Amino acid sequence: MDPRFAAADAAFKEKRDQEAMALLTAALSDGPGPVGAYRILATKLYSAHRYAEAEVWARKGLETAPKSIDLWNLLGVVLRRQNKLGEALAALDKAQKLDPKSLMPLINKANVYNDMRDGQRALECAQKLTRQQPKAAEHHRTMATAYRHLGQMENAAARLEVAVRLQPNAIDAWLDRASIASGLQRHEEAAKVIERALAANPGDPRLSETQSVLLRRAGRRGEAEAMLRELTSKPDAPAWAHYQLGRTLADFNRQEANPHFRRAIELAPENRRYRFALIESLERSRYGDEGANIQEGYEALLEAIKLGPPPEQDLYAARQTALRVGDYALLERLGGFKEFGRETARSGMHGPLLNQLGRVQTPEDRYEVLEQHRIWGRTIEDQVARIPIDRPPPRPKDGRIRLGFMSSDLRNHPVGYFALPLFQYIDRDRFDVYCYSFYTGQEDNTQRFIASQVKEFRWRKSISERDAAQMIADDQLDILIELGGSTHMNKLEVMAYRAAPLQASWLGYPHSAGLSTIDYIVTDPYITPKDPKLLIEKPMAMPHTWLCLGVLQFRDNHEINPLTPEERNGFVTFGTANNPHKYGPHMLRTWAKAVAATPGSRFMWVRPECGSRSFRENMLAIFAEEGVGPERVRFEAVRGAHMPFYNEIDIALDTFPLTGGTTTCETLWMGVPVVSMVGEALFERLSYSILTNAGLGDLVSDNVEDYVATAVKLAGDPARRMMLRASLRDQIKASPLYAHQQFAKDFYDLVAATVAAA
């Protein structure tokens, strides 16, 4: 052996790989060596995930031995790992030409084609491989992946069945087989696949973890919980068991779930998935001191990103946490407006798109966020096309309209508050009303009342989107209206199946959802954008208002202090109870400008985030930029019991571009005027509609300068504010916003006309 390589060879034999690679690198850097030395070094670097270095030495080896099939094949594999797929194919083609009988280049080409999602060429390679080696399970798995890219799920499943029969310990093949069933929303079938896999591979951790996930998806949450509780009761419980138990409990009991996430992190501190599960759960935790939960989540986020950028699937949780505390610099580092929105949409996540509305800054952004919703819609429609529902035959015409409402919020929830008049005054002469809810909590009085009023209230706590769509289709509706958007426990994806011949959105989401299968969106003369290109659906316009203040939340037992805060305190108090996902630096500075321009005034936040030290610091810092010191800012950490705090606010400043909805209605109900700004898109016009219907259209501006001027002028008009505090609630009661019976009539007339015109 060449003495230059002897030390490296000895180190490899003693399994001192890092030292051996360094010695071999140094030796080859001094001058050319045998082809085997290049192959060994490149292979070892590849195994150490040092792909760029492996590529360098594979290429150097090919300069010495350009006909080495091993090096060309290895180069192809290394290039694939760096996502240089075109170059990888070129290298593998060279290897194949050098030795047409070798299967390794063909195996690797099939993998590259699958990476490229080129199912047809991957399938051609896999078919050649299975003809050569029909008993090699991995070739059948490769073929299954190709079939999946071609959308041929049944063929893919059949090939995986062959793979696991040939090699019962092929864990990846079992997992792929279960994934296909789950992707087709056959969750029970997927769970049974894993039961078979565990019978062949008892105790395998990957299979056991997957079983817990699939039991949840199949609606067998109790079984998943029991299994995981037994595992986590043992001193040597694995980290994944604590993580999955946390996931199983989170939607029902975050107070119990969070310690399991923390334990998973203790056991596997390098696992960022566990860290972001805790971050997301803390951001959603409403128990105890919510501000402390938010603060802990934010600090956990700062620790997590020290390990690297958040994984793509966890970006939303990271951004949401940054938003909750107003860390806008971090928000920018976590992804740009366009890149984050489009990537999120392609991944099939809709929830993050709501936050995108508050990030709109330019006219172009309005159309960009619309395109992001379209991308999400196309993604979901493509998925749904693979698993269509069965269509029942048309029902005989009987002159009655079957109207469906789909929402998991037909309960003690803002959606329930605003929808209530429709159930109090159902047009029973023309309509049979059906409701569909997927709420996982307990029935409350509001849900009980709504259920008592309608023909059918189908409440399914655990059902797949496809099965929900089939259930709705079987009811043979004339029109289905979804009210939930992408809020928690709703199933917006159901609308992609077109379970009813006509479909519409209303109330729960202030923008086009993104699906081409939603035909209409309920609007009014004020929130309808002037540019029809800012909506995907057709406007289904109510004559006066798109919402009505239901008696559940908007009742007289919310007492109004007859004296304004200024009369009691000697200074004007501006304030907000709006959600921080609607905030941005420009908007906050605008609020601060209004405060700064009103001598002696204060600003008051009524939000649970006020309990977070970071939220307070970030808000104070922005206000300080405009000359408003901390002594002029008040924080009230409140959730749920916020209505009395409106008695401490003289003037509410509305958010923009995403304006208030529920918050604007609540503020006005408490006799507090709201200063707002109107824009072009629907989500910029919500408060404009509410204020105009309430007779306060003069408090709406169309630019920042007028917004500030309107706020300052109102602050200098104590007589008007005193008058509004005494009369605004009665003014609302006399307006279309509180005309419950008329609102219901208008709504049912609109639906009837829409169905008749179809």
Can you summarize this structure?
With 758 residues, this protein is of the alpha/beta class. It is 55% helix and 7% strand. Among the domains are: 117 residues, Tetratricopeptide repeat domain (Serine Threonine Protein Phosphatase 5, Tetratricopeptide repeat, Alpha Horseshoe), CATH 1.25.40; 148 residues, Rossmann fold; 174 residues, 3-Layer(aba) Sandwich (Rossmann fold).
Question: Layout of SSEs?
Answer:
Elements: H1 3-13, H2 17-30, H3 35-47, H4 51-64, H5 69-81, H6 85-98, H7 104-115, H8 119-132, H9 137-149, H10 153-166, H11 171-183, H12 187-200, H13 205-217, H14 221-232, H15 239-250, H16 254-267, H17 272-284, H18 290-304, H19 315-325, H20 328-333, H21 337-346, H22 351-357, H23 363-385, E1 401-406, H24 414-424, E2 431-437, H25 445-453, E3 456-459, H26 465-474, E4 479-482, E5 502-505, E6 520-523, E7 538-541, H27 565-569, E8 573-576, H28 585-596, E9 602-606, H29 613-625, E10 633-636, E11 651-653, H30 662-669, E12 674-677, H31 686-693, E13 700-701, H32 704-715, H33 718-733, H34 740-757
Parallel strand pairs: 1-2, 1-4, 2-3, 4-5, 5-6, 6-7, 8-9, 8-11, 9-10, 11-12, 12-13
Helix pairs in contact: 1-2, 2-3, 3-4, 3-5, 4-5, 5-6, 5-7, 6-7, 7-8, 7-9, 8-9, 9-10, 10-11, 11-12, 11-13, 12-13, 13-14, 13-15, 14-15, 15-16, 16-17, 17-18, 17-19, 18-19, 21-23, 24-25, 24-34, 28-29, 28-32
